[in-house]
Amino acid sequence: MDAGSSVMLAASKRLPSGSSMPELSTAKQAFRRLLFRSVLVPAAVMVLLALVLIVQVRQLVESTKWVEHTDEVISRLYKAQLTLAEGQSGVRGFLLTADDRDLGPVNFARADLPKQLAELRALTADRPQTVAFADEIVRRFGEWDTIAQEKVAQRIASGTPPLSGTGQAKVIAADISKLFDRWEKQEISLRAERNAQTQTSAAWTVASAGGATIIVGLFLSLLSRGQLRWLSQSYERALARATELSSSLEQRVQERTKELEQTNAKLGDANKELEAFAYSVSHDLRAPMRHISGFANLLRMSETKFTTDDLEYLDTIHRTAVLAGRMVDDLLAFSRIGRSKMRVDPVDLNQVVETVRRELAPELQGRKVEWTLPRLDPIVGDPNLLKLVIQNLLANAIKYSANRELSRIEIGSRAEDGGVTYWVKDNGVGFDMAYAHKLFGVFQRLHRAEEFEGTGIGLANVRRIITRHGGRTWAEGVSGQGATFYFHLPSTPIGDATATLAPASENTITEAVR
Amino acid sequence: MSMKRILLVEDSVNDVKLTTAALRAAGLANEIVVCRDGVEATDYLFRRGIHADRTDETCPAVVLLDLKMPRMDGLEVLQTVRADPRFKTLPIVMITSSAEEQDMVRSYNLGVNGYVVKPVTHDEFLKAIREVGLFWAVVNQPPPQLISASSGKSGT
User: Phi/psi class of residue A443: alpha, beta or left (left: φ > 0; alpha: ψ in -120 to 50)?
Assistant: First the structure.
């Protein structure tokens, strides 16, 4: 019980440590300790209790054995007395009748009684008094037997029964009987004593078992009460914490959602603003360009006499204004490519190439062009946008190979990297690879405007369209020896949401006609 | 065949001059009436406001309508004019700088007869105006029931 209460003390001492907000790991440890306490401690207490009860019961069994021992001694005493009494009556009978049969019990007593007493002596060897009793009885029996044998012999010799005994044998027998009685009394009182001892021991066993059960029960209920309280407290704390966390999380999510909504709204506004800007640019910026070129042209067409220089100036004004107007148009088209919805359909680029070649036919008048047109791999994408790509690349190939006697233009494709790589190769002026990174930027030119016409937006459009399809563009060239423009399209084009808003960092205002 | 009138609705002075010059260059000697915004254009057609005392009662052969104008833009003019049964069949052609798809779609939905994006180069502009002018003011036969606003009124 002591061990149990000390454990309980230890447990109750440990409990408050759990009341401070524990870290997760310490909470785990605390829970492990709790499990340990609620299983091992009761088990230890029960084992202890069982040990105590075993000791008690063994004591009880022991004292019961002693009672039985005493009973055996008593019964043996009775038996010895009976043996003696039968011996005595045998002698008496023989003396009267001289019947030999009466001597049987006498002989038996003579032989057996000392043996019985020796056994009794051994059984009660722990007590000197009973040993003394046994020795005395054996001695007195010897005396009695001597007298009895004399009388038997006299009877046989005389042939008649004696008239009366001397009485000496009777005295001895009475003494022996008294000795037995005293011994018996001692044994009976001993038995009563041992019985009382057994009863006390049994009462103690029952009492201690009951008491232990009550104490253990109380201890266990107290322990589990404490543990349940601790558990419920920590559960409540955890619950409160979880609620707190989830509410703050919810709050954070709400805040973030609000922020996102605001950002979205701002983006939407910005987009609208941008569209309004593009619209007004399309209308307002184009107009003055048209007016300048228009009036310059009208002036040129008038009856007025102009010098050659004047006419050249007027032409320059006209051409410059037209170019500015085209740049505005191209810029608008460029922004429209980014904003327009993208379709995804299977596209046969062979057909697209044919269509574009037909459209570009006017540019090829008076030119010798050798085309290499193998069958192109099929792909999926926006047909209109991909046509624009082919248009730009073929127009470039035609334009930049114009100064060749024989223009060689090759279109090709090969399946690779989970998609198809297409290319357009020409034997034109080419470009210096050092400036390759500028090729696909808006309004970037690698050649002087008077050498080759164009606003410098074509390749920027190409890159933008290919990027929207989830593909990539690159180019190879040698100055004066031609160029090859590649674009790779994935077999399954990715969504264009990213490309729609992508400001296309690398082609911010870097672009496109090489 | 009398020279049919052309109504030019255009807010930009420069565009008025260029369009007029282009029409003249095309050899179209038609009378050109210029309205500088949508309000004036509808006033002219409905013979009200500053055009309340317009004497001639005929309708123009064609209306060349700009899209973006102060006060009342081209789309509003279209809506107002087409809402009146007398002008259901009046030929109206948009001549505009806007190549925005939404402008085109809305114009056609409101019943425009043509949509011309002003070309950047002057040569192409001259060509476009000549073709529009020749087609609508000379080649095209206007619907016979097309009558002026005032005669429409008197006719009831």
Answer: left
Classify residue A469 by its DSSP letter. T
Q: Give, as one character, the DSSP assignment of residue A436.
A: G
DSSP conformational letter for A45: H
Whole-angstrom distance, CA of residue B57 vs CA of residue B48:
13
Torsion of CA A377, A383, A385, A386, to 10 degrees: 10
Closest CB from B14, B17, B97 relative to A286:
B97
Q: Do A295 and B12 touch (CB under 8 A)?
A: no
Query: What b-and-e string marks burial along A442-481, b requiring 16 or more CB atoms within 10 Å of the CB?
Result: bbbbbeeeeebebbbbbbbbbbbbbbbbbbbbbbebeeee
Q: Rounded to an integer, what distance in angstroms lies between the CA atom of residue A398 and that of residue A186? A: 143
> What does each C-alpha distance from B122 to A128, A290, A329 come to in angstroms?
154, 7, 15
Which of B23, B97, B124 to mutate: most A Cβ within 10 Å? B97
For the stretch A335-392, pLDDT in tens is 777 777 778 889 999 999 999 999 888 888 888 899 999 999 999 998 888 998 999 9
Q: Across residues A68-86, what is the average pLDDT?
A: 89
Sign of CA dihedral B43, B44, B46, B50: positive
Residue B31's φ and ψ, nearest 5 degrees, are: -70, 130
Flag whether pLDDT at A261 surpasses 60.
yes
Provide the residue type at A389 as one letter.
Answer: V
What is the ipTM metric for this complex? 0.75
Q: Any bridge partners for residue A424, and if so which?
A: A411, A485
Spatial contact of A147 and A167, defined as CB atoms under 8 Å apart: no
Task: Report pLDDT digits (tens) over B95-135.
Answer: 988 777 888 999 999 999 999 988 878 888 899 999 998 89
How many residues are listed for chain B in this entry? 156
3-class SS letters over B132-149: HHHHHHHHCCCCCCCCCH
Distance in angstroms (rounded) separating the CA atoms of residues B117 and B98:
6
CA distances for A279 relative to A331, A362, B99, B102, B116, angstroms: 12, 32, 9, 11, 17
pLDDT exceeds 50 at position A286: yes
- d(C-alpha A457, C-alpha A464), whole Å: 11
Helix (H, G, I), strand (E, B) or coil at B91: coil
Cα–Cα distance measured from residue A72 to residue A187, given in angstroms and rounded to the nearest whole number: 10
Residue B125: its chain A contacts at CB < 8 A?
290, 294
Place of tokens 């009460």: A225
- Using the Cβ of B150 and the Cβ atoms of chain A, whether some distance falls under 8 Å is answered with no
Query: Which residues share a beta bridge with A478?
Result: A482
CB A482 within 8 A of CB A425: yes
Q: What is the DSSP string of A180-244?
A: HHHHHHHHHHHHHHHHHHHHHHHHHHHHHHHHHHHHHHHHHHHHHHHHHHHHHHHHHHHHHHHHH
Give percent helix, percent strand, percent coil of chain B, each to the nearest 5: 45, 15, 40
Joined together, the tokens standing for residue A312 give 């050249």
Q: Is the pLDDT of residue A498 over 60?
A: no
Flag if A293 and B122 touch (Cβ within 8 Å): yes
**Residue B81: helix, strand or coil by DSSP?**
helix
Residue A410 neighbours by CB under 8 Å, 6+ apart: A371, A372, A373, A423, A424, A425, A426
| Beta-carbon contacts below 8 Å between A and B | 61
Q: Using CA atoms, how far apart are residues A139 and A136, in angstroms rounded to an integer?
A: 5
